[in-house]
Design brief:
Layout: E1 6-10, E2 19-25, E3 30-34, E4 41-44, E5 48-54, H1 63-72
Antiparallel strand pairs: 1-2, 1-5, 2-3, 3-4
Length: 121
């Protein structure tokens, strides 16, 4: 069982080698972890390597809180510590490519006329 607030590194999966923070303990096998490059999710304790550092974090904190706490502690490089205000991210608008209009080729064909069917007498 890992304590809440324990700093760990992931040792398995695509997030291998990334630093994370234990947010909540589910049981002896699983814990919820989060970090700047680790999504907040359930993780097997066997896939975590505990570091000798423990930080104060509230149980069930968000991923943004975990990232901010790790950055303030100086454990993560290259992250700016920002105020906890929610910032709206606006994606830059991509220019829309207009399809070139093709010129319609006029044909001089006359519409087909219906021929009268012969009637039986």
């Amino acid at each position: 069982m890992i304590d809440v607030g324990r700093v760990c590194t992931k040792t398995a999966g695509r997030e291998n080698g990334n630093i994370c923070l234990v947010i909540e303990n589910i049981d002896d096998i699983f814990a919820i972890v989060a970090g700047p490059s680790v999504k907040k999710k359930r993780c097997n304790v066997k896939h975590l390597s505990q570091l000798p550092r423990k930080l104060l974090v509230s149980k069930g904190a968000s991923q943004a809180d975990a990232s901010r706490i790790l950055a303030e502690a100086g454990l993560v490089e290259g992250l700016e510590v920002k105020s906890p205000k929610k910032e709206e991210k606006k994606a830059p608008k991509k220019p829309v490519k207009k399809a070139e209009k093709t010129k319609a080729v006029k044909t001089s064909k006359k519409p087909a006329t219906k021929k009268a069917l012969p009637t039986k007498k």
